[in-house]
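ingest -> validate -> predict -> emit
validate: passed (alphabet ok, no gaps, 509 aa)
predict: started
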Amino acid sequence: MDYILSILIFFPAFAALIGFLVKEDSIKAYGILVTAIEFILSIVMWINFDVQDSSMQFTQSFPIIPSYGITYLVGIDGISLFLVIMTTFMTMISLIGLSETKALKNLIITVLFLEMTMVGVFLALDAIIFYLFWELSLIPMLYIIGAWGGKLRVYAAIKFFLYTFFGSLIMLLGMLYLGYIYFQTTGNWSFNIQDWNMLILPFDLQLWLFIAFFAGFAIKVPMFPFHTWLPYAHGQAPTIGSVILAAVLLKMGTYGFVRFSLPLFPDASSYLVIPMAILALIAIVYTAMVAYAQEDMKQVIAYSSVSHMGVIILGIFALNVEGIAGAIFLMISHGIVSGALFMLVGVIYDRRHTKQIEEFGGLAKVMPKYATIFAVILMASVGLPLTIGFVGEFLSLLGFFKISPTLTLIAGLTIILGAVYMLVMYKKSFFGEITKEENKKLLDLNKKELTALIPLVALVILLGVYPKPILEPANNTVSKMIEIMHAKIVTQEAQIRLLDANSINGAQK
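emit:
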């Protein structure tokens, strides 16, 4: 198991290079095989992962630029474990359900390269290596949107790239300066995140560095008001692009807050809890209302993603085990649910070549399997108890309740508003009379589509009933991270806030 993480990172890229030699008519089967092997490798890693150990496991390192402390360093803990598994799983599922035929070989090779960068982001423990994987992920997604997207694909691709690239440059400046601060403090260069965790920084410096990292993470999430690139990207991307974008790429931003912002800048994180919560609340309520006003089924789900990501931000900045572990679980659940929803929209688009809600109606009569699966995933999206969507939302809101019951009450509107716009969309699309002649002859889900969607439905129910496999390792690692934050806090106000936020844990023990 010494090299399992490096294999997970580079196996898709190596397979992608071999893919150039594979015949066009065999490339899809090849892509599914590669992603299935990658998923199995991630399961093997999980089996050998010690859930009781809160430290980094399976670490591997070798120097790249020793004079500046830049090292290839990878490792995994309870925070990143299931994000990696979700990445490998959703990439495999997206290829199983793939219906694209245009330049299929190029598309699958691009997806395999993209998988390498996404896994690399979640495993990198050196800030520069993290940044390289982070930036490299833009190129395959830019190509996927620009080459296989809709009519406005070039505009959507360029907007996506410019937004995220600009934010990432500001983040890079913060990383370089933090490396310099480490050099000034210790006399040695290091970009090792674990080394950085030992730094105790003055409040003013924490605040400026938090803002620098915020620029990269907030745009990727995306948080309000940086969310405007997302509806265009989702609206113009092919189905597989939307699935991977919603399921994995957005989680890179929230993961960055947990991995970098909280442990490195605990005082700034505590000081900015309310401003971050206000931005999250605006995203939750405003984008939910915008989602309700949409006439395009895919845009409803796109704005829904922004709303749900706001709940994740609230959980992260609850600064307690319940909130942060709940946010991590919600990252997983949102990845599965949003990926499934975009896949379901792709199914109907393949048949009707339209995503306009008004073009449908009565679909449940001609596509009962499709309607049933859509209903289950929709219920998870609105947070129905005993589905995967409920657990993460409940814990995130429970965690933030210790910070502000009032703001938590407002955030709880996401459940009500989500139910409104999703159920209205479902009612218009699936119930009533069939008014369009084209809808009367629609075919229900085929074997390929069922193979892709049934595992997602199973996870929605299974993890909703029994979330422990994800929550246990997340709780252990988050508890250790909060201990690090306690030890590093230098302002009395932040210490009081963090103690208040975590008082619920002591009461439960």
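Confidence is low (pLDDT under 50) at residues 504-509.
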